[in-house]
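Lab notebook page, bench 4
Experiment: in silico fold of construct C2
Operator: M.H.
Input chain length: 328 residues
Purpose: comparison with the prior construct
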Amino acid sequence: MPSRPRTAGGRSTGGPSHAPGDLKWTAPSPPKMPGPKGAGPASHDRREREPASIDGLELPMVAAPSPFAELARPTGGGRSEVAPRTVERGVVVFDLDGTILDDLGSISAVAADVMEKAFGTPAAEARVHYLATTGMPFEAQLAQLYPEAPAALRQATARTFHGRKVTEAYALAKPFPEIPKLLKRLSVERWTLAVSTGAETEMADLILEREGLRFWFEEVLGSGEGTKREHLREYRRRFPGARMVLVGDSRFDMEAAQSVENVVPVGRASSLPGWTLTPSDLSKWGAAWADYTLSKLPEALEAFERRPVGTSPGARRRPARAPKRRPR
C-alpha cells in the first residue's frame, strides 16, 4: 500500500482524516491518463504538446517541468557560468508559487484532481496531502505519497499535473496585493532580488513579465538549474559574502535555507479553506520571521542587518552557566 505522506507541513482544518496509505488502488493496464472530459490518452498527449496562451502571450508547453529535481537530476545544463560579484546591501531570494503568486489554491485543486484520477484518493484528501508536502517537486511528492505505485504511472501523472498547472493555474495567477510595492521598495533600498522556483525558468520569466514584476529581479533560477538547495548554493557562489534571505511558504523552503550556509529563512504563512500554515508553524521549522503578508518584510530585513553575517536571527542564546564552586 502507499505510505502515509509527511503531513507535518501544516494542519488540515476539516475534511477526511485518512491518508492515501489507507486506500487501495489498482494500476490501470494500460494506464489511463487523466485528461479533458471525453478525451482519451491520445487527445490528452496532444494537448500537452500544444502551446497555451495567456493574455495573448504564448506559453511554452513542456513535458514535465522540474522532473526528478530532488532525485539526483543533472543540473546547470546549457547555461554559461555567471561570474561572482558583490552587491550593495544583500540578496533576497523569493519562492514563486504561494510566495509571490497567490496561486496555491488553484494549484492544489489541480493536484487534487490529478491525484484522484490517477490513484483513487478522494480529492479533498489529496488536496490536503499535496499542501502538506508542497515545496517539494511534484514528482518527489508523488514518490512520498505513493511509493509503491508504478514509477511510470507517477511520471505520467506528473506530466499531466504540469500541463494543467500551466493552463488552469498559471493562466489565472496574480501576485499577492502587497508584492508590487514591496519589490519596488526593496529595490529602492538597494537589496538585490532573485527568484528560486520549481517551475521552468522560461515559464517563471513569462509570468513575472506578464505581471510587470520581472524588472525587479536580477536573477531567476528554475527547475532546469536544480533544486532550491542547489539554487541557494549557486546564489551563494554568485554573491559571495553577501547577506542572503530566502522567502518561502513551506516547511521545505525553511529546511532548504537552513541547509545552505548563512541563508536566513523567512516564511509567508497561508490560510486556505480546510488548510492552515501559521507563522508559528514556520517558526518551528526555522523561520526567523513569518507572517500572512510580506508587507513588513523590509523592517524584518533591517533587523537582520543589525546582526553579524553568519548569525542566525532565530537562534536562541543559551544563558551562560555560572562557574562551579569548589567545595571547601
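Observations: Residues 63 and 158 are 9 Å apart (CA to CA). Residues 1-8, 13-25, 27-78, 314-323 have pLDDT under 50 and may be disordered.
Next step: discuss at group meeting.
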